[in-house]
Amino acid sequence: MIQRIQTLYLLVVVFLQTVMLFSAQATVIDGAVEQSVSLSKNLQWQLLIGLTALLPLITIFLFKKRRKQIRLSIINSLLLLTLQIVVVFTLINISNENVTINYSASDISPAISLILTILAIRFILKDEMKIRAYNRIR
């Protein structure tokens, strides 16, 4: 289970999304007032971030059911794309001429997680093709 590369990709996705759940997306400085902006303050975004961290963890333990792994990874990819769009629009809405925004590294974690999930899907598909080829030879 752990020796497969897609498992490592999915573990990195779990780590990135867990870090995003507990960190702020940006710090807004308006004169002398400093305020942190975090998506995890709203319950619906907290659930979305938590789901994008939980789905890859579930996917890892379905290593004998590759088709379910692929389906869950595709669903997670769509959720990660939605989350990245939400992060971008949230940061665009708070920016104006009077404030300074310090972005954090967790702003791009859904995009990195999306890329890693797509790579994991590719390797899961390769494993499935190998299994089918071995079954045809028998």
Can you walk through the features of this model?
- This protein has 138 residues and is mainly alpha-helical.
- The protein has one domain: Butyryl-CoA Dehydrogenase, subunit A, domain 3.
- 67% of the residues lie in helices and 10% in strands.
- The chain has four helices and three strands, in the order H-E-E-H-H-E-H.
- The protein has helices at residues 5-21, 43-60, 66-94, 109-137, and strands spanning 26-30, 33-37, 100-103.
- It is elongated, with a radius of gyration of 18 Å.
- It starts with a helix and ends with a helix.
Tell me the major beta sheet: 3 strands, antiparallel
Radius of gyration: 18 Å
Q: Supply the number of helical segments.
A: 4
Biggest sheet strand order reads: 2-1-3
Distance between the termini: 24 Å
Number of domain modules? 1
- Tell me the structural class: mainly alpha
Helical fraction: 55-70%
